[in-house]
Structures are given as structure tokens and as C-alpha cells.
Amino acid sequence: MAKILVVDDEPNNRYLLEVILKVFQEKGVGILYAVDGKEGLELILREKPDLVFLDIMLPEMDGYEVCSRTKKTHGLTQVYIVLLTARSRDSIHQKAADAGADMTIYKPFKVLTIVDTVQKVLGIKA
After folding, report:
1. Where are the domains of the chain?
2. Alpha carbon distance 96, 72 (integer Å)
3. Rounded Cα distance, 91 and 111, in Å
């Protein structure tokens, strides 16, 4: 079974992603949630999700660190990580690439951007 992890400390952001991802959950995709970077990394290491939507600004450990530890320290390069941010595009592009992120989505994001990303990464149609 495919798994998606959402890591965001903002309840409204988690809820919005939960609503968007419900169509995939109905197709058998497991959806997991974490509220900070430390919990997110623990879930990544334990559950090995196929796709992670990872906010950059998190308590405990920021998204860059979670991404870098996942990809570089633990060698989980097969985990597709999408960084989510409301920051300026110029300030994060290089840092996201250095951390090993596969993609960056800027907030506020469009529903179709999330759906298209899941379809592309998991090969499951909405």
C-alpha cells in the first residue's frame, strides 16, 4: 500500500491537505500526519512513505533538516519529498536543492498542484 505523510504544524494546512488527499485515501493510499520535524522524521524512518509533503517552518527541526537527514543521513532517496513554503522563491530554491528535496510547492498552493503531484509520484489517478 502506498503511503503519504503530511508534516505541518498548522492545523488548517493539515486539514486542507487531508481534504485534498481524501480521494487517494479512498483508493487505498495510507495518509499519515506529523505536527513537527522530529515527529515527521520518526514517521519517515518507521513508515517509509512514498511521498512526503513537508512544511519548511516547523518546530523541533525544520523541513530542510528533515529532508537532508532523510535523503543523506539515512539514504532514503526513494522517499519523494515536496517542501511546502510561503517564503519567497529566491530565498529557498538553492537551500531546498541542497537538502535533497525533489520538489517545492509555494503556498498558497492550488488543489490541482497537490493532486497532480500525487498522481505523478504514486501513479494513481484521482
Report:
1. 3-122
2. 13
3. 24
Burial 58-81 (b: 16+ CB within 10 A, else e): beebbbbbbbbbbbeeeebeebbb
Q: If you write DSSP's letter for every residue of 41-100 in order, what string do you get?
A: HHHHHHH--SEEEEESS-SSS-HHHHHHIIIIIS--TTSEEEEEE-S-HHHHHHHHHHHT
Residue whose C-alpha cell is 517545492 = 104
For the chain, what is the radius of gyration of the CA atoms? 13
Q: Measuring CA to CA, which residue among 97, 102, 100, 104 is closest to residue 121?
A: 102
Phi, psi at 73, each rounded to 5°: -70, -45
pTM value?
A: 0.97
Say what the pLDDT of residue 43 is: 98
Among 1.10.3720.10, 3.20.20.190, 3.40.50.2300, 3.30.230.20, what is the CATH number of 3-122?
Answer: 3.40.50.2300
Q: What pLDDT is recorded for position 93?
A: 84
Residues of the chain with pLDDT under 70: 89
User: Which helix (DSSP H) or strand (DSSP E) does residue 14 occupy?
Assistant: helix 11-25
